């Protein structure tokens, strides 16, 4: 496993999400509080809409797919509502010196 630097905290304002491409793999970084960040695959498992463009609920810790309204849990990537029924991948992340790092498995990096 390796940690990859994605961005600074300032690149993702509190209460929002933003997409990044790391080693050819598109991820969504969601910042729900000053130093609380979650990272998911950016594409909805139902119809490949960009989750980073969806509405973020910082209280319920979920994001709504902007295309068909499925809600995905930020902690687990599991959908709470239809039409999505398959989860999206989640990634462990760390904040160091106001920089966001995401952990990728070696296989994730070579398959991208």
Automatic annotation (TrEMBL):
The keyword Iron applies. It comes from Chloroflexus aggregans (strain MD-66 / DSM 9485). Residues 4-102 form the Rieske domain. SUPFAM superfamilies: ISP domain (SSF50022). This is Rieske (2Fe-2S) domain protein. GO terms for molecular function: 2 iron, 2 sulfur cluster binding; metal ion binding; monooxygenase activity; oxidoreductase activity, acting on paired donors, with incorporation or reduction of molecular oxygen. The keyword Repressor does not apply. InterPro entries: Rieske_2Fe-2S (IPR017941), Rieske_2Fe-2S_sf (IPR036922). Pfam families: Rieske. Transmembrane segments: none annotated. Keywords: 2Fe-2S, Iron, Iron-sulfur, Metal-binding.
């Amino acid at each position: 496993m390796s940690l990859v630097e994605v961005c600074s905290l300032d690149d993702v304002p509190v209460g929002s999400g933003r997409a990044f491409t790391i080693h050819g793999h598109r991820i969504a970084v969601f910042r729900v509080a000053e130093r609380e960040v979650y990272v998911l695959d950016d594409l909805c498992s139902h119809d490949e809409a960009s989750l980073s463009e969806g509405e973020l609920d910082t209280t319920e810790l979920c994001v709504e797919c902007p295309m068909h309204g499925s809600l995905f849990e930020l902690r687990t990537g599991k959908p709470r509502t239809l039409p999505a029924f398959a989860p999206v991948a989640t990634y462990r992340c760390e904040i160091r010196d106001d920089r966001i790092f995401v952990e990728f498995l070696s296989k994730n990096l070579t398959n991208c």
